[in-house]
């Protein structure tokens, strides 16, 4: 059911001006104005060397003013909310040099109902969070007493509010609960790092999935294995899918790179760009997903956006200004922190599930790799689709069995080429970091290089 | 809310009579501006300001931390941090003894960017955009400039009160060239502690960046495998930051006895020609990683990490120094008031040797000359660093340009494989360092030209 707001946490800084009051001041100076306002709090509990180490509480409040004056965009932001005059005047000062505005702020909008707040998160005490973390530590150490565990449990809430001079308005509250732990084993000069985490809008009380995942990683990495320099099948576990495959695709589908002409996908909507078994959707309207939201950060309603359907590029994603420059419409993909102007970005990514069970994928490989985590991925020519990274955690498959961990090994290739040379897409997906749901993806031919 | 005498009284009052082993308060006021172009389009120009603080308390064996924007009740924030610390419990945590300091440190300034108008900043950057965009073959470019002035007050329950200011300047210039589905890019990152002059007069650099991006479209790809590589000072700086710098940060090892054994003082990591230092005061006190006091009020200094191939020291906070029985080195740093200080590098560099750069190339039959940087990462044992440029070396001669490469190493073998250290130290002040969610922290790193045997390179 469409609606315009949801529960809101009252500002803790009662004496500070409301977003509406800031807007009123900004409207006196520009022809159009917008205020983006975020109040947030978080309580992380940190673990180090198998025990609790520190407890933090963070409270923040900040606002940004974007205004259009004589057709140009001025921008400023502050966490010193007592000084509204300085905030709006700084925005006004920048306007003469700003970008030519290619949009109007959106007016009142019907937003989808996207609940992302659960009050139960706020009821979690630091003692309870500490006990939850200690359970992860204890169970990992019970599995293998050489494991050193560090990580954390945290809860957070925030309220995001936007008002603009054209009557656009939204405010929503978000809750978050996160567990993330690393299990380290040092044997001689060999360092093994395993990791998993989970994010939720709800309070997490059961860390079993994380514990099981870390134990599986430790098990697969107990023995060591070596590979030769050659091309071989590589199964990307869900945690390795974004840096190798998705980030290049998203750089290519970003309305901004398309507009600049630096996207290999420019002018290719409707064309098949990957294997038809691969699909990618952005859907920030899914309820109770950490990265979901009813509106983007510019007051444009979010929607389900198929990005790649059965291998065919279907949509570029846009914020307001980029859409204006490109002669397109915003896709509800404007995203920003308080400190900067919005840019096009995705919300909740979903990679379509295939039909291959992970065990069967492994069983079918004579010689290949499973990659769980990478080092340096993304620090090469992403725009061109290239990937090139050290296998931080990966295992060798020999004759259909996982035989041990590989180290000092690099994988290289190109995401576009690799996505047209698939073995299969895994049947069972999982959430990675609260904003991505993906199964494993098996690539047929990836270059592997190792220190001999 | 000005950082004046009244603020000092409020901070000192909030620190009085607290039931904790140790308490510190940070208050920070900052102003920043940024200008960013994509192609000829000015994408963003803006100004930001921030006012906030934090309290960190050590009580009953644990740390509590509270960060906030509302400075109206500092005592309540102190109480919150102490309450959090008491949830932790456990054995008493010791802090290395350091002298209490009361000091005021003005910003290190050249041409102060705060004194340059937004219009003038834009006028400095405009030609770079125009030079790149008018280069045939360039599809697009990006120019991103930012500056920030931070005014930071640090006070602790031991009587220190330090008021410091610093100004940070950052610029990245990049060009992208496209040929059908093939997109190549090239770029440079520059930074400075308080001197806008560093980002002026870069027309030649902008032209080089543009030319390089275009040339890369026709450059061949390097096949993956082991190579003899010569690193320029910029990439060698990134290399030592990733290969050894992070593992020198004692917070990685102070709680893990097995890592302490691996990183024991006296262990040999490389040949006698390998010397590595870190320090907020060296090689110059005016680099982006330079400061007088860290965020625990400890004086910045020079720390030898490797001397003649042997591990001789590491980087500390007061807590890690006490735990390992070593002296505090002034390396506890926080990105800003939203974060607790953790052990970080400052200016990290390989000390120049006696060879000339030409010596390093002379007897390389088949290898790569790798320059400039794209990025670097480490997981302590293994690390990667990516070059912005790569050239083939044959029979001692630098030959054709190749596609940029990603290099990878292992701390226990790669440093031993350094077989040449030249005499031409260069410091890289671009970009920043990330750790535990605190990024980008201003650091610098540098080196002379170095040569590494059997370095692993990824490639198709």
Topology, element by element:
The complex is a heterodimer of chains A (452) and B (460).
Chain A: H1 19-27, E1 32-48, E2 51-69, E3 72-78, H2 84-94, H3 126-143, E4 148-164, E5 169-187, E6 190-200, H4 208-220, E7 230-236, H5 241-253, H6 255-260, E8 280-283, E9 304-309, E10 312-313, H7 320-326, E11 334-335, E12 343-344, E13 349-351, H8 358-363, E14 367-375, E15 386-398, E16 401-405, E17 409-414, H9 415-418, E18 422-425, E19 430-432, E20 436-438, E21 441-450
Parallel strand pairs in A: 7-14, 13-20
Antiparallel strand pairs in A: 1-2, 1-4, 2-3, 4-5, 5-6, 7-21, 8-9, 8-13, 9-10, 11-12, 14-15, 15-16, 15-17, 17-21, 18-21, 19-20
Helix pairs in contact in A: 3-4
Chain B: H1 5-15, E1 22-38, E2 41-59, E3 62-68, H2 74-88, E4 102-105, H3 118-133, E5 138-156, E6 161-179, E7 182-193, H4 203-216, E8 225-231, H5 233-245, H6 257-262, E9 276-279, E10 302-307, E11 310-311, H7 318-324, E12 332-333, E13 342-343, E14 347-350, H8 357-362, E15 366-378, E16 382-394, E17 397-402, E18 406-410, E19 418-421, E20 426-428, E21 433-435, E22 438-441, E23 444-447, E24 450-458
Parallel strand pairs in B: 4-6, 8-15, 14-23
Antiparallel strand pairs in B: 1-2, 1-5, 2-3, 5-6, 6-7, 8-24, 9-10, 9-14, 10-11, 12-13, 15-16, 16-17, 16-18, 18-24, 19-24, 20-23, 21-22
Helix pairs in contact in B: 1-2, 3-4
């Amino acid at each position: 059911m469409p609606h315009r707001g949801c529960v809101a946490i009252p500002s803790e800084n009662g004496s500070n001006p409301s977003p509406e009051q800031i807007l009123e001041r900004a409207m006196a100076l520009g022809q159009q104005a917008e205020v983006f306002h975020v109040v947030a709090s978080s309580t992380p509990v940190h673990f180090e060397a198998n025990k609790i180490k520190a407890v933090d509480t963070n409270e923040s409040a900040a606002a940004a003013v974007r205004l259009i004056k004589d057709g140009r965009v001025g921008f400023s932001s502050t966490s010193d909310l007592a000084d509204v005059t300085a905030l709006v005047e700084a925005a006004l000062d920048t306007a003469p040099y700003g970008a030519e505005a290619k949009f109007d702020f959106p007016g009142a909008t019907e937003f989808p109902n996207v609940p992302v707040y659960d009050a139960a998160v706020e009821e979690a005490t630091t003692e309870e969070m500490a006990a939850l973390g200690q359970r992860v530590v204890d169970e990992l150490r019970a599995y293998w007493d050489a494991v050193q565990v560090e990580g954390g449990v945290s809860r957070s809430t925030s309220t995001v509010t936007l008002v603009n001079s054209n009557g656009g308005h939204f405010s929503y509250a978000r809750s978050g609960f996160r567990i993330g732990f690393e299990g380290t084993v040092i044997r001689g000069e060999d360092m093994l790092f395993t990791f998993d985490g989970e994010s939720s809008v709800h309070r997490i009380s059961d860390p079993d999935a994380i514990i099981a995942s870390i134990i599986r990683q430790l098990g697969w990495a107990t023995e060591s294995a070596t590979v030769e320099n050659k091309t071989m099948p590589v199964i990307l576990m869900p945690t390795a899918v974004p840096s190798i495959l998705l980030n290049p695709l998203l750089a290519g589908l970003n309305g901004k790179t398309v507009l600049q002409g630096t996207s290999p996908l420019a002018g290719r909507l409707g064309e098949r760009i990957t294997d038809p078994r691969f699909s990618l959707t952005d859907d920030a309207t899914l309820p109770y997903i950490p990265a979901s939201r009813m509106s983007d950060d510019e007051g444009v309603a979010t929607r389900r956006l198929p990005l790649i359907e059965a291998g065919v590029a279907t949509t570029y994603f846009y914020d307001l200004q980029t859409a204006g420059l490109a002669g397109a419409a915003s896709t509800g993909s404007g995203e920003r922190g308080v400190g900067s102007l919005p840019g096009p970005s995705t919300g909740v990514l979903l990679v379509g599930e295939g039909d291959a069970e992970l065990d069967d994928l492994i069983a079918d490989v004579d010689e290949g790799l499973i990659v769980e985590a990478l080092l340096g991925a993304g620090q090469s020519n992403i725009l061109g689709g290239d990937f090139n990274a050290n296998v931080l955690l990966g295992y060798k498959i020999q004759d259909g069995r996982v035989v041990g961990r590989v180290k000092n090994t690099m994988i290289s290739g190109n995401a576009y080429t690799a996505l047209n040379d698939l073995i299969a897409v895994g049947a069972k997906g999982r959430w990675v970091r609260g904003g991505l749901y993906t199964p494993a993806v098996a690539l047929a031919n990836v270059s592997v290089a190792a220190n001999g | 809310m000005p950082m004046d005498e009244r603020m000092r009284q409020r901070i000192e009052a909030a620190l009085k009579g607290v039931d904790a082993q140790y308490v510190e308060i940070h208050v920070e006021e900052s102003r920043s501006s940024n200008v960013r172009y994509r192609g000829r389009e000015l994408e963003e120009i803006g100004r930001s300001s921030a006012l906030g603080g934090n309290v960190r308390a050590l009580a009953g064996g644990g740390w509590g931390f509270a960060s906030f924007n509302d400075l109206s009740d500092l005592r309540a924030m102190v109480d919150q941090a102490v309450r959090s610390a008491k949830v932790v419990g456990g054995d008493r945590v010791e802090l290395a003894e350091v002298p209490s300091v009361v000091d005021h440190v003005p910003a290190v300034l050249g041409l102060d960017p705060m004194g340059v108008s937004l219009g003038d900043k834009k006028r400095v950057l405009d030609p770079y955009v125009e030079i790149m965009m008018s280069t045939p073959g360039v599809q697009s470019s990006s120019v991103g400039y930012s500056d920030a002035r931070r005014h930071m007050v640090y006070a602790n329950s031991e009587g220190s009160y330090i008021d410091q200011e610093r100004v940070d300047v950052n610029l990245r210039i990049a060009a992208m060239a496209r040929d059908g589905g093939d997109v190549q890019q090239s770029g440079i990152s520059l930074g400075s502690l308080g001197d806008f002059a560093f980002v002026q007069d870069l027309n030649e650099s902008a032209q080089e960046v543009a030319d390089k991006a275009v040339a890369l479209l026709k450059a061949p790809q390097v096949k993956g495998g082991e190579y003899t590589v010569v690193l320029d000072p910029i990439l060698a700086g990134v290399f030592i930051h990733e290969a050894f710098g992070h593992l020198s940060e004692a917070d990685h090892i102070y709680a893990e006895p097995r890592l302490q054994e691996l990183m024991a003082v006296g262990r040999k990591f490389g040949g006698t020609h390998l010397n590595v230092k870190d320090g907020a005061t060296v090689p110059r006190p005016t680099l982006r990683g330079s400061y007088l006091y860290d965020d625990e009020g400890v004086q910045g200094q020079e720390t030898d990490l490797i001397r003649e191939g042997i591990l001789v020291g590491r980087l500390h906070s007061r807590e890690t120094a006490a735990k390992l029985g070593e002296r505090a080195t002034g390396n506890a740093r926080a990105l800003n008031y939203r974060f607790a200080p953790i052990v970080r590098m400052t200016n990290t560099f390989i000390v120049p040797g006696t060879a000339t750069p030409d010596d390093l190339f002379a007897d390389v039959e088949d290898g790569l000359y790798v320059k400039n940087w794209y990025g670097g990462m480490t997981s302590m044992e293994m690390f990667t660093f990516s070059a912005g440029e790569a050239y083939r070396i044959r029979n001692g001669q630098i030959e054709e340009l190749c596609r940029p490469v990603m290099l990878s190493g292992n701390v226990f073998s790669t440093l031993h494989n350094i077989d040449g250290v030249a005499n031409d130290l260069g410091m890289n002040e671009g970009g920043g360092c990330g750790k535990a969610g605190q990024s980008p922290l201003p650091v610098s790193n540098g080196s002379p030209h170095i040569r590494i045997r059997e370095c692993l390179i990824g490639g198709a």
